[in-house]
Automatic annotation (TrEMBL), chains A, B:
One of its GO terms (molecular function) is magnesium ion binding. Reaction mechanism of ThiL seems to utilize a direct, inline transfer of the gamma-phosphate of ATP to TMP rather than a phosphorylated enzyme intermediate. Keywords: ATP-binding, Kinase, Magnesium, Metal-binding, Nucleotide-binding, Thiamine biosynthesis, Transferase. It is an enzyme of class 2 (transferase). It comes from Halorubrum californiense DSM 19288. This is Thiamine-monophosphate kinase.
Amino acid sequence: MNERDALRALTADLPHAGDDAAVVDGTAITTDMLHERTDFPSRTTRYTAGWRAVGASLSDVAAMGAAASAAVAVYADAAFDREELSRFVAGAVDVCEAVDAEYVGGDLDEHVEFTTATTAIGDVTEAGSVTRGGARPGDALCVTGEWGRSAAALRLFERGGEDDIERANELFRFTPRVADGLALAGTATAMMDSSDGLARSCHQLAEASDVGIEIERDAVPVHPAVEAVAEDSAERFELAAHFGEDFELLCAVSEAEIAGVREGCPSGLTRIGTVVEEPDGEAGPRVLADGDPLPDRGFTHGDE
Amino acid sequence: MNERDALRALTADLPHAGDDAAVVDGTAITTDMLHERTDFPSRTTRYTAGWRAVGASLSDVAAMGAAASAAVAVYADAAFDREELSRFVAGAVDVCEAVDAEYVGGDLDEHVEFTTATTAIGDVTEAGSVTRGGARPGDALCVTGEWGRSAAALRLFERGGEDDIERANELFRFTPRVADGLALAGTATAMMDSSDGLARSCHQLAEASDVGIEIERDAVPVHPAVEAVAEDSAERFELAAHFGEDFELLCAVSEAEIAGVREGCPSGLTRIGTVVEEPDGEAGPRVLADGDPLPDRGFTHGDE
């Protein structure tokens, strides 16, 4: 059984699973695990790793429209280097501060490779939490921020010059969209973060809401860093829509409310498409981009 | 730097670290990571592993005197077996139910060996939370439950008969002392759980409270399962006091309040010693057992 099937099976067992975070008694809670080999290119600094790992969990809290309050992390490695550990903690503290949450420590563990498991919690406000399942035909599909920064960062890590590495680390340290999520709570009919990329996230939101989605390729806001690494517009869209790990928010909002809610979103809110009726049966494609089916896939990593 | 020194260094960096759980805005939060190789003997069932891993985090919430509300877990393995995953989740669900909390899922990850990272949260009640740092000379030192069950379980795992393995799994599935912790909140001056064993926990509580501790060996309540595996009283005490991972509570309570608070503790509350003045300088032993220094060490695992 692969990870995706296993996740599906798990979701069937647990009523609260299957969204970005679970909500229990007004508290959103979410957890993730990241590994050196699969999640952190070799010249990711420990400061960046701490920021990004804890940020990924804060992003899940943001996607529920909750106010992030605290995060913890397990830091596991084959050996403990005082400097590396301090830098990890500094990154974790700083990303929490960026969203008015508090990093409160965690646990250490010996492990064959650098591994971190992070958990964030947040308070659901009076506006309530937002799931993936409430989008309605006719809603506008909107996104926060600009897309493709993690893809661009990976290219820069691969290029490997000193400046490239420094910029790549900067790009990896995203600001979790907690403020935007809070602005959207009560207005967005469905919301999620984009850990798996725009294309896959559109499929997930459409499936959870029993709707279809139509997007326009040119409407997707592409991060400036993508321009510097992509050869043409097809590659730009590939990096912005399929790579993932941008940790932006994807949401459905009624047309009439876009302008009002955009005011409250510090990262901006861009309309990229429309929520439509669910396609007939299993046959029709759930997500279209400029009228063509948008495949439910992440980035193709080539031979790696 | 070893794990203990690294933890000390971390505690200095983070104001909330260093207790069983951090408390932020009335919510206690704690996280742990466990591995197949180091934490689960080879015939630990996945049901038991789910129970025990999530239980360890619930125990930390209990140690703060908070009401456990929810838990999440990352489940990582080299491959996902549907049955094993379901059993793990069933154990996690059941240990949460045993303490009136809710297991709300988590994350899956591919990893070289079975590894789980668990997080639990809980609500601090009006009685407030209890740290390790408030014990006062003259307080009675008390413990919940009976000690040595995990040590006995390990012996049974090693012995390896079918009945031994079944009994060992049962012993590994402890009930986190949430109800006892809630009863003790507001009365106990200091409290912690016994993940590192009675001896080490006494040292930790004494250090955090700037006091000394004197215990009586015969007063320590030993789990009946220890009788069956220990050869003599010295070995019984070794298993009950040094092995650890019993997840009982250790607390300081004023003498006058023991009887009253004991009523509310479903696992029982046994007085095993007294909190005394801090020994002079660094020289004196912090913890005495029957007048002799009680070493600050966990179980000696022999050659393993």
